[in-house]
Specification:
Structural class: alpha+beta
Distance between the termini: 64 Å
Strand order of the largest sheet: 5-4-8-2-1-14-17-16
Strand content: 25-35%
Largest sheet: 8 strands, mixed
Length: 488
């Protein structure tokens, strides 16, 4: 650990750079901002991170403390990792991961803080804050990454998603913070739009998949430092990779692909171009100037964050071009549903999962025709509608009610696309697509709920369909008591 101690000593000066700034404290209505200074420590399989969060209390009431989500700690204990019981996600058996805090400071002074939750996934930091007042919270910590599947972990790539302490959303309706439990079915990360500045130092053989285009700001002794900036996004995610980088222009959107195969990179380019064009027409323009797609081992399927998509390496085989296209379309849809339009992924997971799944089905129709759409719809929906699943689970059930990833997929994804298809048939194509566009347009940058989605379809249809929508979400499971025929 001598290497860690040396780096920690060398970077103590950085804490001075993270000292409170009077100019920022005086800004009354700014987005939260995050500054992260990160150093990759390969031998220790960890990163040393200095982080500062600047927050202005916009709740309209005084706060005695701030809550942070620390979802990296989901890897801390074997009994609470977010994997199904029958999965074997670890390369060499269970190894603990998560965050080890070195210091926590508020406006430069030592802070009172504590962890809570089964996996210590939430952090309470004492902080007396009047309405409209600003504060800066500084963290120093080590992020430990085991070799494990999922959005966070190490393998032939280092995957960093939901890896840093992030401000929890305050809900005025409950006068409390939203604390959503991580599970095998749900990425519980839930945040307001924020601004990010990240510096990352790592060995020079790595490339970085991230929001925007990383700027090489220094290179010496076999290590490179990058600067990454992202404004008005919900989260920052990074993938460190040794794959080659391919860069394309997609009608004004810069696409970066990190892959070991030039032909696979071209396949990503072609699929991304087609999907962005279709989604842009239906939901509004792609919300960012850049898109980075990287192949990664140890991913169950795919993963998405603002401007970044990670796909399992297996999909980059020339034999799996169709699967690559479908999964990329599904993950790209999350740039709108979950990224641009936020929603609580624990309380209402269908607003992200069902809408993204159905968007990818619509893309199948766009790319291959209505017969291909019907074939895929029936392959997903009909078996799911014919079986009875105990527990009273519905398409709009909260994520923490599901016991497995397969149960979630059957109900929220497979039955969910049936709900969307029937809603589309009820409204007609023109009104249905107008409803999706209005939903995105009205809630861009915000946090939406079922009421917002219902309002959009009511406006588009010119009639009250909100009760119909709720009924379908909650009762389509009743189809199991009847003879379910394929859709035509």
């Amino acid at each position: 650990m001598n290497g860690i101690r040396r780096i920690l000593a060398m970077t103590l000066a950085l804490l001075l750079c993270l000292a409170p700034s009077g100019a920022r404290a005086e800004e009354s209505e700014s987005r939260p901002s995050y500054e992260l200074h990160m150093s990759l420590l390969e031998n220790e399989q960890s990163l040393l991170v200095h982080q500062q969060v600047t927050y202005t209390n916009d709740t309209g009431r005084p706060l005695s403390y701030l809550m942070f989500q620390v979802y990296a700690n989901m890897l801390r204990r074997q009994q609470s990792v977010p994997f199904d019981a029958d999965e074997q996600p670890y390369t060499h058996g269970f190894a603990p991961g998560g965050i080890d805090f070195v210091s926590v400071r508020v406006n430069g002074e030592s802070a009172q803080w504590g962890m809570q939750g089964e996996s210590e996934c939430f952090m309470r930091v004492a902080c007396g804050l009047k309405a409209g007042e600003s504060v800066q919270v500084q963290f120093t910590y080590y992020l430990l990454l085991p070799e494990v599947e999922g959005m966070l972990g190490a393998g032939n790539t280092w995957r960093l998603n939901a890896f840093y302490p992030a401000l929890c959303v305050f809900d005025p309706a409950t006068d409390d913070y939203v604390l959503g439990a991580m599970s095998s079915v749900c990425d519980a990360y839930f945040a307001a739009m924020s601004d990010y500045t990240v510096t990352l130092e790592a060995p020079s053989e790595y490339r970085v998949a991230c929001f925007g285009t990383p700027e090489n700001i220094d290179e010496q002794n076999g290590r490179v430092s990058w600067r990454i900036q992202a404004e008005n996004v919900r989260e920052i995610a990074l993938v460190l990779s040794k794959y080659k980088e391919y860069v394309y222009d997609l009608d004004g959107v810069t696409l970066r692909v990190l892959s070991g195969s030039a032909s696979a990179a071209r396949a990503v380019r072609d699929a991304a171009r087609e999907a962005l064009e279709a989604y842009g027409e239906w939901f509004g323009a792609y919300p960012y100037d850049t898109l980075t797609v990287t192949e990664s081992d140890c991913l169950v399927e795919g993963d998405a964050a603002a401007g970044v998509v990670s796909l399992n390496t297996k999909l980059f085989s020339w034999k799996k071009r169709g699967e690559l296209k479908n999964e990329l379309a599904r993950q790209l849809a999350r740039q709108w549903f979950g990224g641009l339009v936020g929603s609580n992924p624990v309380r209402e997971p269908w607003l992200q999962a069902t809408l993204s799944e159905y968007a990818s089905l619509l893309f199948t129709e766009h790319a291959q025709g209505y017969k291909a759409y019907l074939k895929q719809l029936n392959a997903q929906a009909v078996p799911a509608l014919r079986i009875t699943i105990p527990g009273g689970l519905n398409v709009d059930s909260a994520a923490d009610r599901f016991t497995s990833r397969s149960e979630f997929a059957t109900i929220v994804l497979d039955r969910g696309v049936a709900v969307m298809h029937e809603l589309r048939e009820t409204m007609g194509d023109e009104a249905f697509f107008e409803g999706l566009r209005l939903y995105v347009q009205a809630n861009a940058g915000g946090i939406a709920s079922i009421a917002d989605f219902a309002a959009a379809i009511d406006q588009a249809s010119g009639s009250r369909l909100d009760e119909y929508l709720v009924a379908q979400l909650e009762t389509i499971s009743d189809y199991a008591g009847y003879e379910v025929q394929p859709y035509e």
